[in-house]
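Thread title: Can someone regenerate the structure for this chain?

I was given the following input by a collaborator and told the matching structure tokens would be attached. They weren't. Posting the sequence so someone can regenerate them.
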Amino acid sequence: MTGIRLRVALVLIGLAVTSAASDAETVVLKGGTLYASADAVALPDAVIVISDGVISAVGKSGEVSVPADARAIDCSGKTVVAGFWNSHVHFTEHVWHNAGAAPAAPLTQHMQEMLTRWGFTTVWDLGSDPNNTLPLRKRIAAGEVAGPTILLAGNIFPKGGHPVYVPSEVQLPEVATPEEATKWAHDWLAMGEDGIKLFTGAFMGDKPVINMDPAIAKAAVDVAHAQGRPVFAHPQNKVGVETVIASDVDVLAHTTPSERAYTDDQLARFKAQGTALIPTLGLFTTVVLDPNVTNRLIAATVNQLKQFSDNGGTVLFGTDVGFTKQYDTTQEVQLMHRALSERQVLASLTTNPARFFKAAKKGKVERGFDADLVVLDGDPLADVGNLAKVSTTIRAGHVIYQKP
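Best answer:
Regenerated them for you:
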């Protein structure tokens, strides 16, 4: 990825919040400690005023004018940060089937269990049925379902690369030529998807991994980049990682537990190309039953995360939730903390994705920014586990989750 190429015109973020923000109430968060960004100093006894879905004022108590008709949320003893991004989710569970017509209440309830109670205000869905997820996104934008802003990536698999963990009856877009990849990429983006996800390596169980030819991957990348859209990739081994580099993919959707470490050359290329990484460390606690094997997988992936971060790479938070049912984010933030500081973990949830995906009005709690905020029960810089202890989640000025 080069600077201007990934404009990621996240126009759909704007579309997703427009209708919800237009009738948003005035909300005031009072008395909490504010971290306006991941690298900001704490502002105690803060007041944040939200009007029409936008942060209209930020300051200390007594220094900010509070509208008389505002809905006040007492944040005393709590911490306020920007809304969280989960850059790797899947709306594939049965509850999302027929999401365009299903009753809103169970959709909102499951959205809370899966995402909003963990502070997520923006998510990247890296593979689901658009017949379900596109209507779901519209219902969230209309205020019918309380949920995060949803961005979607259409999937492309190598020919014969139907992963063993995907039911055989599920039809997947497998491609054998660059021309087929070009067509699928065009079709996904024309449908309303916001990016592309390539399986540069497909896990086939006890059979060899099927890797995507770099020329095929590059054909899809070229289509996406021509439209300013990002490309994610799922590598399964070293060959898949090399294809990510050769084809100029923007985001590694996982670390690669089959490899102990990234090579010096890979790290140099990641840095030169501006590649980002979603570690999904908690995922690798679910793939085998032997705890000794699990420990080795985690050691390898934590090491890759540390290498990548120490090399100056952008780290994005993601859990693969929907594929897994580990909704609770505690384990993920704690595993990431083995390689990153508390501020770096917070950045992976807030400022990093906002900057990487060019969402200029997200990722910070400042006047004029989108009113996407999270109220935490404790200070995440004192204990990284507090990032999973969410009291209130606000998207576009609307409370979409509040702890009972």
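Residues 238 and 398 are 44 Å apart (CA to CA).
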